[in-house]
Amino acid sequence: MTVQLTERPAGARTRASLADSRAAGAAGENAIHAICLLALILPLLLLCVLVLQAFLDGRDRLTWDFITGLPSRKAEAAGILPALLGSAYLMLLTAAIAIPIGIGAAIYLEEYTQPSRFASFIEVNISNLAGVPSIIYGLLGLEVFVRIMGMGRSLLAGACTLALMLLPMVIMASREALRSVSWSYREACYALGSDHWRMICKVILPMSLPGILTGIILSLARAIGETAPIITIGALAYVSFLPDSVNSSFTALPIQVFNWISNPKAAFHVNAAAGIIVLLTIMLLLNGLAIFLRAIYQRKAGQ
Amino acid sequence: MIQRMIIAAAFVAALAGAAGCKGGKQKQAVVRLDGSSTVFLISQAVAEDFEKQNSQWKVTIGVSGTGGGFKKFCAGETDVQNASRPIKKSEAEACAAAGIEYIELPVAFDGLAVVVNPRNTWAEHITTAELKKIWEPAAQGKVMRWSHVRPDWPDKEIHLYGPGVDSGTYDYFTEAIVHKAAASRGDFTSSEDDNVLVQGIASDEGAIGFFGLAYFEENRDKLKLLPVDDGSGKGPVAPSVETVMKSEYQPLSRPLFIYVNKASLDRPEVKAFMNFYIAHAMALSAEVGYIPLPDAAYRLTAERLNRKTTGSLFLGGKSLVGVRIQDLLANK
Fold it and tell me: Which of A283, A278, A285, A233 is nearest to A260 (CA)?
């Protein structure tokens, strides 16, 4: 799915490299063309095989009862509703926490700091944080949110942990988007007598929104598939009720899928495949939403 | 545009806050379980039926593993602990330090199956001494071919498969075979997911591995079971419901436990759940692929629960390898 979204910059780069190779000769161009095509097809093919496999394995179990059912020891009776809603709430809360903080940090770093040793120190560390394994965030969340802040093994603790994990990605994507707004707009704003915040609010942010949104939604799509951090902070494997508050204990889709895959009975592996399809569908919808929003705001920004 | 987004974000935050307050006030009666993923399957079945009959009460189960679960149990965060091995001395001390008294209840048996690839034509059974020779720490780099184990077996590479070193299954196997818990060679393929071991052994002619009997039962067509000879003179015994229940499949039959916090038992939902658990453990453990304890053992277990007999039968260096669970319970 990420392939679709990176299509535009990748395409731009391909065109640029093709232009270079044209100068180098037709043979070189053909080779580059083939290599780039292969680079596109290979991941797509792999993805297709995985999706197809999951779909073939799981389609028989993919019924309305499966989606609205509660967990059970009988594979045919087991459903994913608590896991599905758990994941959905987790995503909403994570977004509510990560978006304001992430965009705020990006605006500060991009618009308000002067280049300094301190600023570049922060910059390097944000990039480093994006590469920290997710389990580390889980352990941090367990200690800070669950124990010290006393949130317990709740949805809120899970969302805070995931938000923390996403922040570096959200900040970096937002900064990239803010930076891409042409300098002439800023100069135009100042020329019209606008102050700094007004310029950010009315011009820079709306123009960079497509990029920011894409970054946020892509990182959310990654978060929804994360298992390690939420297992660490104490998501459960069996919950037969739906979360009714941010303090509720919860389970999530990847945990339910993992749980079914490790069951000895083959019938549960079918459930796992069906669960994977549901998870993939949600990710596809999220990514679709990203493209849709980007298209809308790009049109607006273009006007 | 931006203002609208900020307002929307504030609205979501306010909504979340309001929901949080609501949840704080009306607390639903919940029985909290955590621990072993092996025992999870039984506890899940019990919880499902319990909730059907008692809709006012809810049950939640986590799978932090036996060790991780005990940490939460001894911190008072859970009411019931699923354990695929008895409590360790260090864990008992942690519980004691936190003032948590617990009641230890065996609920079922699990047999550990020793399996090879179906294309393995040479091995028909194996002795515990040979298993020790294969798995002990000193075997690393030395016992690398089947002929090293038994001279009339072929000169082919032997590949080892076993559960992850954090699992209760690994702890039990090493204690039973190597005679020291968690001591084994390190050069084997390990996975927390036993289905991965099944796949590995099924596609590797030189493979030998072990895992819970339920995983063999579900994959009979892909694997070959090796009966185990414990050297007591009764010859090789294959694991089955009967041989495990009658304690004939030794030493690789292990009891599975739940531990309940004594203080939690004062809450009606926990008390009802525990009574329900012991009353239905026999039928439900069989249904999810484990082997029930003998009748007599469940009677003694129920008694233990009613009398709130605290403490563990296995502390003080007593091993559970090769003991009959009902004798152990009766001795108390």
Answer: A278
**Topology given in CATH for the domain delimited by A67-302:** MetI-like fold (1.10.3720)
What per-residue confidence (pLDDT) applies to B165? Answer: 83
Stretches in chain B below the pLDDT threshold 70? 1-28, 316-322, 331-332
Interface with B, mutate which of A236, A257, A259, A269 (most B CBs under 10 A): A236
Contact A240 B59 (CB under 8 A): yes
CA distance A264 to chain B (A): 5
Which residues are CB-contacts of B99 (< 8 A; sequence separation ≥ 6)? none
The DSSP code for B314 is S
- Here the ipTM equals 0.78
Three state DSSP letters for B236-285? CECCCHHHHHCCCCCCCEEEEEEEEECHHHHCHHHHHHHHHHHHHHHHHH
Q: pLDDT at position B196, please?
A: 92
Helix axes A266-302 and A205-224, enclosed angle (nearest 10): 180
Nearest-CA distance A173 → chain B (Å): 18
Is the Cβ pair A238, B51 closer than 8 Å?
no
Q: How many residues comprise chain B?
A: 332
User: In order of start, what are the domains of chain B with their CATH numbers?
Assistant: 28-107+256-331 (3.40.190.10), 111-245 (3.40.190.10)
**Contacts for A141-147 with beta carbons within 8 Å, 24 or more apart?**
A141/A229, A141/A232, A141/A233, A142/A232, A142/A233, A142/A234, A145/A233, A146/A233, A146/A234
* B228, β-bridge pairs: B126, B237
| Chain A interface residues (partner B, CB cutoff 8 A) | 71-73, 92-93, 96, 99-100, 153, 156, 201-202, 205-206, 209, 234-241, 244-249, 259, 261-266, 269
Q: Pick from A100, A209, A237: which is nearest to B40 by CB?
A: A237
- pTM for this prediction: 0.81
Out of A244, A265, A269, whose CB is closest to B23?
A244
Cα torsion through B308, B310, B312, B315, rounded to 10: -160
Q: Which amino acid is at B60?
A: T
Say what the alpha-carbon torsion angle A17, A22, A26, A27 is, to the nearest 10 degrees. Answer: -30
> A206: cis peptide before it, omega within 30°?
no
Name the token pair of A216.
């946020």
User: Which candidate in A91, A240, A255 is best for mutational testing of the B interface (most B CBs within 10 A)?
Assistant: A240
The per-residue pLDDT for range B307-317, each reduced to its tens digit, is: 998 888 887 65
Q: CB contact, 8 Å: B71 with chain A?
A: no
The segments of chain A whose pLDDT lies below 70 read: 1-24, 301-303
Burial profile B52-74: b = 16 or more Cβ within 10 angstroms, e = fewer: eebeebbbbbbbbbbbbbbbbbb
Q: Residue B186: how many CB atoms within 10 A of its CB?
A: 8
Total beta-carbon pairs less than 8 A apart between chain A and chain B: 99
- State the Cα–Cα distance between residues B166 and B255, nearest whole angstrom: 18
